[in-house]
Design a protein that fits this description.
By secondary structure, this protein is mostly helical. The chain is built from nine helices and no strands.
Length: 166
């Protein structure tokens, strides 16, 4: 039962972030805060000791700094940087590379899709509210979708999930 509860607390903010980023090209701060707080709210269900908690916080710190740098260079939005850091607290060092790889692959696929489909998308879709943002905007893309997809792919194989199964 605890696996289901923790997975739900992990997945719901990701799905909300993906939806809001797709719909409005923004990720509300409260979604990233819910993602971050969810880890600590569920801590009694997956407690592994202080060294593991320190590892999760170290991964969070590294991703926070990386997100800040990516945002400073204009490569990702502020909401994406905050969501990336909030997701990372759920993963340890062993899961972080998988999260980066999956997120990068989903981001590349999303970027290629948007780039290649701009000229072949029906006018009706391109001129809709969402289509205007995606296909005729200034090149921005809802990277929250890639972050959510990457995190959801890593979750079932993560150490935290494995601990919950034991």
């Amino acid at each position: 039962m605890s696996v289901f509860i923790v997975t739900l607390i992990f997945a719901v903010p990701l799905l909300v972030a993906a939806y809001t980023d797709f719909d409005a090209m923004t990720i509300p701060n409260k979604v990233s805060l819910a993602m971050f707080a969810g880890f600590f709210l569920t801590l009694p269900l997956h407690w592994q000791g202080l060294p593991q908690l320190g590892e999760h916080l170290a991964v969070f710190g590294l991703f926070f700094l990386a997100g800040f740098a990516l945002f400073a260079f204009g490569w990702i939005g502020g909401g994406d940087a905050k969501l990336m850091a909030a997701i990372s607290v759920w993963f340890g060092w062993g899961d972080a590379p998988s999260f980066i790889i999956y997120t990068t692959l989903f981001g590349a696929a999303l970027g290629l899709f948007l780039l290649l489909s701009r000229n072949v998308t029906p006018v009706r879709l391109r001129t809709s509210a969402i289509g205007m943002k995606l296909f005729q905007g200034d090149g921005d893309m809802p990277y929250g979708l890639a972050l959510a997809a990457g995190a959801l792919c890593v979750w079932p194989g993560s150490r935290l999930f494995t601990v919950l199964l034991a």
